[in-house]
Amino acid sequence: MAATRPNNRHRIRTACLALLAALPLGACQTRQAQLAQDDDSAWYIGAKADKPFDIPLVDTGRLDPKYRRQTVAYTGLEAPGTIVVDIDQRQLFLVQEGGTAQRYGVGVGKAGFSWKGEARVGRKGVWPDWSPTPTMVSLHPDLPRTRKGGLDNPLGARALYLYQGNRDILFRIHGTNEPWSIGEQMSSGCVRMLNEDVADLFERVPVGTRVIVKRGGRDRV
Questions:
Q1: Which segments constitute the L,D-TPase catalytic domain (predicted)?
Q2: Is residue 1 domain-resident?
């Protein structure tokens, strides 16, 4: 779980940037070139050992402090173990015992694409493959129909697939290869996290975890 040695850092960073330049389509698609407006290499500071790929580590000092992973006080009514996503605040909370929560910064859907409601984690994926939803294909017919998991995959290092009953609602909580999008409203609907953060969340929650996504302070219309 150690970070890469300094002499490997440049190699990891170069590989990440080469992959990021190769059309990072979003499952949860984004304005790529517009946001890569400064030196992308400044975002990456090493990597954490993982399989089959190491997880690129981000300089979280570049994020607004409210989007950095931390334990915070939590006064909501949800039971410990619940995931609560606040679309307006661009934050995800994993409710814990004792009136606290693990809080993460997230990127969310652009206007007209955000979903809200209640679901559960129906399955979990490690370096998952990506496929566009039917809506995405209708809007962008030239999209590839699948992409294997990897550093350039829009779902990143981990994905939590949300279900209602036995139905996959095509809404994901997943990693991203665009760390600058955390705190932004720009995806095609899914909730994106830093790869290191979604890997942390992945280890903390089992399949079946309750998920509440709120917008305007509510999870219902």
A1: 81-214
A2: no
